Amino acid sequence: MTIETAPATWGPARSKTVTWFDPMATAQAGAALSGIAYMRAIAAGELPAPPISGLFGGFGEMTVADGEVGFACVPDESAYNPIGLVHGGLVCTLLDSVVGCAVHTTLPAGTGYTSIELKVSYLRPIHGHTGAIRAVGRVTKPGRRIAFAEGEVRDSGGKLLATASSSLLVFPLGEG
């Protein structure tokens, strides 16, 4: 079935523009910094945020401490699933990002990480009118080869929307 024009009941088409900077230039600059210095440089706007943040409208209100990172986003209808809720993949990506960045704050220069496992529990639905949501990731056990972290997402009123636990592989950059 081919639809030549959208039915009037669909309303006008909507669009969203995503802008980002060369991620490899940022990664190269970050490779020379400790993880916490790198995260702080991104939070301060001294280095651009990763391209994935553009899909969320930017990771606003980024906070960085040793073993802990937080940032916010405002989900909109462009992230809706077929039943009219913000897709769980947005929340999963947000949680994967904060736990990974939290682990990154514990790593020396020239060291990277990647998720091995991520378990997400969705506790409440998120709508376009939910407003800003904030994710915080915390390292529960740092490690030289494997690190563990937990994360949570809350709405602006403090209601817990989702939680995650994660294990991450730690490795020298350039390996693999």
What's this, in brief?
By secondary structure, this protein is α+β, with helices and mostly antiparallel strands. 22% of the residues lie in helices and 32% in strands. The chain contains four helices and six strands; from the N terminus they run H-H-H-E-E-H-E-E-E-E.
- CATH-assigned homologous superfamily: Hotdog Thioesterase
Tell me the major beta sheet: 6 strands, antiparallel
Name the CATH class: Alpha Beta
Looking at the structure, the CATH topology is Thiol Ester Dehydrase, Chain A
Uncertain residue segments: none
Strand order of the largest sheet: 1-2-4-5-6-3
Measured as a percent range, the helix fraction is: 10-25%
Number of strands: 6
Topology:
Elements: H1 23-31, H2 35-43, H3 52-55, E1 60-65, E2 68-73, H4 88-104, E3 111-122, E4 133-141, E5 146-155, E6 160-172
Antiparallel strand pairs: 1-2, 2-4, 3-6, 4-5, 5-6
Verbal overview:
- The protein has 176 residues and is α+β, with helices and mostly antiparallel strands.
- The chain has one domain (33-172): Thiol Ester Dehydrase, Chain A (Roll).
- Helix content is 22%, strand content 32%.
- The chain contains 4 helices and 6 strands.
- It has a 6-stranded antiparallel beta sheet, covered by helices on one side.
- A hairpin with a 4-residue loop joins strand 4 and strand 5.
- The radius of gyration is 18 Å and the shape is globular.
- The model has no long low-confidence stretch (mean pLDDT 92).
